């Protein structure tokens, strides 16, 4: 029963990424969307995200990155960029979705 | 076939409506005879504090409704230990929620399970539908 | 695959409704079925037909109405949440003695049970919110 | 003293509107003047007359309407924010070709300049939001 | 030009208290309202709040505490409880208000 | 008598509307001939990033509007250094905002002032009306 966790808030603004990481299971994946995409950039949280990407698949939504003027080539090591089509695939490839609102 | 539904409560009551409207979803879900589990973590643990009195803020005190969860056969309520501790709370600060086991001469049993993040992760992994409020 | 969508926030204030719309369009384009889109909390405000967004901006309600027409989507607005926030259809307005209604074409108002059903019937439920 | 109030969130979803109401009542009781209450962002949704909250809960819009009557409050809804979100008065509905309007008694729709004026004219501006 | 800073979110949920403390001036005061009142209780943030209450006046709105089942006698040392009337007085006693939304 | 207004931007753009509707307030305020200052701190610094392209999310890109602030005589724009650094950004990542000084032969001058928390505190203390978005 794998889970796709979506995080839609900046790690500076909310604790949802931290909470998600506390209860994530092996085989689960994380998708950063909306203001959550900042976590994939070179912020003071990048070590946390890099570590998460070593134990889990971590994705970031490209259209939300571009909207915010964040470059795909500057994102945290191990994080993969997907578009909305990729978002849909991630939803179907995992057994359920947990949106960390 | 019943599905395993989990409702995860992460927000404090009153500051926003999510706690109240989440409870409305939970109560409705009981009518569908699904396997329902509730989680209180992060600021969601504040929803269950004893002695809430909203007279001074003009809002409805909906905290008594939690004690009805047992009557709706909702008896798997998980509270994350780490969230409780960070807030300086213990189970004694929270409502004591119970359900009656009709297979055991209607004995009152605890609905609340205090779990670590790790134990919670295992319970979450086992669900089929998760809605986080 | 059969997908259900839940939207918890109103239009414009949060990106939730926009993200849900982009996701739904992408899912339909890939041949998936959208079992239901359920509007809860402030999400019910997406269903108003009275909004007049600036000409150079998107009209979120209209986007849903058009997608509904094209794909016969089931757009359900939670009745309890809608009553709290002032979203009404014609029948409900009459029953409650209100002199106007404001729901847009393509949306229907129904109970919270429709959300649970959406969770039961669909293979996946995806929630968008604050 | 002369106070102005700004409310950024809609009714029920956030406590902002409730806090602002309690504060305004307390300020009036202490003899202060409320120069203006300005509804911005989703705050405009407080001005709908179509809401039907549960009987055992407060009716936020009605509370404002009654306080307005009693103290001749100036309750101003931002027109740009209101148009985006579907809050209209009769004139605006006509002008925009909409078949209904939904603003409650006691509120008036006006421009964003009224917020700046509220900041200039009042001794203090207190903002409530998310 | 003294400022009354209001904080309406839990310190676990948002960073507004931290941000406020970064730019607060001598003679300013802080009022915790809505979900902000949890900061006045014995949480893992209580040292931060206690320190703030040593350099500034820190208040908490009683009606919001009671609504949440938090006892006035358990609040952080140095924090004073006010009701809505006290909230109004704090607004008039300071030159301006900064609501950390 | 002009009052000193300060608008404090703390939220990222697009995720919520506060950045956009705050900008609308700022532009209107210019018509009232008040002394207007802007602050970008916390996630608010993200509002000014270069190269925003919203084609993929179907929302309006309002970032070009910031460059018009100078034409509205809004030339006191403060960016908190600590917020910028925590996000791994430098001023080069942000739009270069300028105003024309008509008393100096219309020379283009920087509107943006990079300030420490401490310096920002002093500027804030000096204001008469503060609205935080």
Topology of helices and strands:
The complex is a heterohexamer, with two copies of chain A (101 residues), two copies of chain B (133 residues) and two copies of chain C (130 residues).
Chain A lengths: L2 E5 L8 H8 L5 E4 L13 H10 L1 E5 H6 L11 E4 L1 H10 L2 E4 L2
Chain B lengths: L3 E6 L8 H13 L4 E6 L35 E5 H6 L11 E4 L5 E4 L1 E4 L1 H9 L3 E4 L1
Parallel strand pairs in B: 1-2, 1-7, 2-3, 3-6
Antiparallel strand pairs in B: 4-5
Chain C lengths: L1 E6 L8 H14 L3 E7 L20 H12 L3 E4 H7 L4 H6 L11 E4 L2 H9 L2 E5 L2
Parallel strand pairs in C: 1-2, 1-5, 2-3, 3-4
Keyword list:
heterohexamer; B: 133 residues; alpha/beta; 5-stranded parallel sheet; two-stranded antiparallel ribbon; 3 helices; C: 130 residues; 5 helices; 5 strands
Tell me what the structure shows.
- The complex is a heterohexamer, with two copies of chain A (101 residues), two copies of chain B (133 residues) and two copies of chain C (130 residues).
- Chain A has helices spanning 16-23, 46-55, 62-67, 84-93, and strands at residues 3-7, 29-32, 57-61, 79-82, 96-99.
- Chain A has 101 residues and is α/β, with parallel strands linked by helices.
- In chain A, helix 2 (46-55) links the parallel strand 2 and strand 3.
- Chain B is α/β, with parallel strands linked by helices and 133 residues long.
- Chain B starts with a strand and ends with a strand.
- Chain C has 130 residues and is an alpha/beta fold.
- Chain C has a five-stranded parallel beta sheet with strand order 4-3-2-1-5, with helices on both faces.
- The radius of gyration of chain C is 14 Å and the shape is globular.
- The model of chain C has no long low-confidence stretch (mean pLDDT 97).
- Chains in contact: A-B, A-C, A-E, A-F, B-C, B-D, B-E, C-D, C-F, D-E, D-F, E-F.
- Chain A binds chain E through residues 12-15, and chain E through 12-15.
In short:
The complex is a heterohexamer, with two copies of chain A (about 100 residues), two copies of chain B (about 130 residues) and two copies of chain C (about 130 residues). Chain A is of the alpha/beta class. Chain A contains four helices and five strands.
Most extensive interface, chain pair and sizes = C-D, 29 and 29 residues
Strand pairing plus helix content of chain A: what structural class? alpha/beta
Overall outline of chain A: globular
Number of strand segments of chain A: 5
The fraction of residues in strands of chain C falls at 15-25%
Oligomer: heterohexamer
Number of strands of chain C: 5
Kindly state the percentage of residues in helix of chain A: 25-40%
């Amino acid at each position: 029963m794998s889970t796709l966790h979506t995080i839609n808030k900046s790690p500076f603004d909310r604790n949802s990424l931290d909470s998600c990481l506390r209860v994530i299971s092996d085989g689960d994946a994380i998708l950063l969307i909306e203001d959550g995409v900042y976590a994939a950039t070179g912020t003071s949280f990048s070590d946390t995200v890099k570590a998460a990407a070593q134990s889990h698949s971590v994705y970031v939504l490209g259209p939300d990155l571009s909207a915010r003027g964040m470059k795909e080539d500057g994102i945290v090591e191990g994080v993969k960029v997907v578009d909305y089509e990729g978002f849909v695939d991630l939803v179907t490839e995992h057994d359920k979705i947990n949106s960390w609102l | 076939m019943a599905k395993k539904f989990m409702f995860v409560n992460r927000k404090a009551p009153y500051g926003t409506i999510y706690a109240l409207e989440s409870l409305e979803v939970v109560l409705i879900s009981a009518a569908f005879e699904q396997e329902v589990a509730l989680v209180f973590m992060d600021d969601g643990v504040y929803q269950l504090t004893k002695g809430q009195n909203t007279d001074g803020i003009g809002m409805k005190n909906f905290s008594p409704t939690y004690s009805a969860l047992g009557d709706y056969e909702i008896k798997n309520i998980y509270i994350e230990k780490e969230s409780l501790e960070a807030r300086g709370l213990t189970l004694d600060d929270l409502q004591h929620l119970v359900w009656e086991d009709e297979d055991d001469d209607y004995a009152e049993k605890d609905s609340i399970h205090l779990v670590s993040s790790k134990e919670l992760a295992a319970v979450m992994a086992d669900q089929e539908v998760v809605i986080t409020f | 695959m059969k997908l259900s969508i839940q939207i918890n926030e109103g239009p414009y204030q949060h990106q939730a409704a926009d993200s849900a719309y982009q996701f739904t369009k992408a899912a339909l384009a890939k041949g998936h079925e959208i079992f239901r889109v359920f509007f809860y909390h402030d999400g019910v405000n997406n269903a108003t037909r009275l909004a007049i967004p600036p000409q150079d901006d998107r009209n979120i309600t209209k986007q849903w109405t058009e997608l509904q027409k094209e794909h016969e989507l089931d757009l359900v607005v939670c009745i309890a949440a809608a009553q709290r926030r002032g979203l009404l259809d014609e029948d409900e307005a009459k029953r409650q003695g209100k002199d106007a209604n404001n729901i847009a074409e393509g949306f229907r108002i129904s109970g919270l049970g429709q959300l649970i059903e959406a969770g039961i019937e669909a293979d996946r439920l995806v929630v968008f919110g604050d």
